[in-house]
# Entry
Amino acid sequence: PLTFTSATTRIGLPLLFAGQSQKEFFVNQAMGILDALHCRAVVASRPAPPDAADDGDCFRVTAPTAGAWAGREHHLAVRIADAWHFVAPRPGMMLFDAEAGCLLAFNGDWVSADAP
# Structure
């Protein structure tokens, strides 16, 4: 038989397993992550959580981290059900920072293209 880990390998979506209770929690969490990441954009880049964030808001975590984001440099922080969920970036991942107005790519660090 096939065996699965508890999350997908690329963006860490939670997987269901036979006999699991509260499956709706895991499905809803996965849908929240997909909803936040499908447009490949973040609200802004920040070292710490903003004072107010709406469900679905996605931020790029920058150093030096603080508060609930401590130790999560480079991750994407997604607000789901009034809690922060973190997605580790993968090489080649690209996103648009709406506040800075620039496209970023990840290859060990988030970098933006130089202006022509």
